[in-house]
Amino acid sequence: MNYRDVIKKLETAALYPDKTVADSIGKTGKAAVGCFPIYTPEEIIYAAGMLPVGMWGGPTELKRADKYLQSFCCSIMRSNIEYGMKGTYNMLKGVVLPTFCDTLKCICENWKVAVPHIPIIPIVYPQNRNTDAGFTYLTEEFRRVKVEVETLAGHEISDDKLEEAWNLYEDYRETMRRFSEAAADYPQIIGAKTRHLILKAGWFLDKKEYLEDIRTILEGLKQEEKQPFSGKRVIATGLIAEPDSLLDIFEENQIAIVGDDLAQESRQFRTKGREVGDFWERMAGRIADQKGDTFLYEAEKTRGQMLIDLVRERNADAVVVFMMKFCDPEEFDYPIYKKELEAAGIPHLYLEIDQQLDSFEQIRTRVQSFAEMLI
């Protein structure tokens, strides 16, 4: 298949996740397990012979979710509850939920009542993940999750299967890092929306199939000549860059996203796994080694410098902040890295977003004005 056809395939997969997941279940014969944001131990699910599926909400009319979550909660979580209650997630055999924020902590018990037919497996990550106690605790949490996933799967997970899953995911993460770098060189082909959809599609496909698709795209891009780009290059930061149609505005104004610090995208694969230790220690090590993430405690707050470094590495003109409305952890970080960006002379655009946005005109005006300011 031509690499441009693969791009179209992944765009379609991301735009219609329910159909994509159903097709993946049919193609692989695997049961699907939902993964709430932000980090879930997908390797354990995959090792059990099941399909990890991302649960990042989406645009939907919120009717039932208000029984459990107030209107001032993150729209991703409200959408997830809504989808669960109206049957959209009925194809899932279970869900795994990390309790990173106050809303996620509430979801765990609410889910048991609102969506009782889909079992939920909570996982609690330690705040002090770099201490010996925190590290040991996390390895034990992963072991507990393994036992609960085995119950879902109906069989034990062998050590060999865990190692196979780890190696596959490390291969996936390394390939995605290469894709992110390569895409920055071809903004005319991999525009803002296309880039987002390619990365998003990975949440709904079997990782082996997805990995083959990304490699096909990388090989195709190698055959293309790099062309000068007359537009502006930006780095995106935040939880997600959605709704998807929001990114049409960036393409209308010739703004390319050439790198990101988004929870749904590069935060999933930017940290290389350790090469020492057993499976559980390597799993915990990936979390311990994560830097600049709002949801993982970090006294030194390296996110601002990481954004500055990424701007320089990708030859970007500015940073765009996609601030999910009512996401307290992201909002707490903003004043800190805002000062650092300003001190470095890097312009930034702050956009407050919500998955239920039905009008984009104010955002369109702000993006257009920002593009003109960067000229």
Automatic annotation (TrEMBL):
Domain of life: Bacteria
Listed Gene3D superfamilies: 1.20.1270.370, 3.40.50.11890, 3.40.50.11900
A single GO molecular function term of this UniProt record: metal ion binding
Protein name: 2-hydroxyacyl-CoA dehydratase
Family, similarity comment: Belongs to the FldB/FldC dehydratase alpha/beta subunit family.
Obligatory cofactor(s): [4Fe-4S] cluster
This protein's UniProt keywords: Iron, Iron-sulfur, Metal-binding
Keyword Membrane in annotation: no
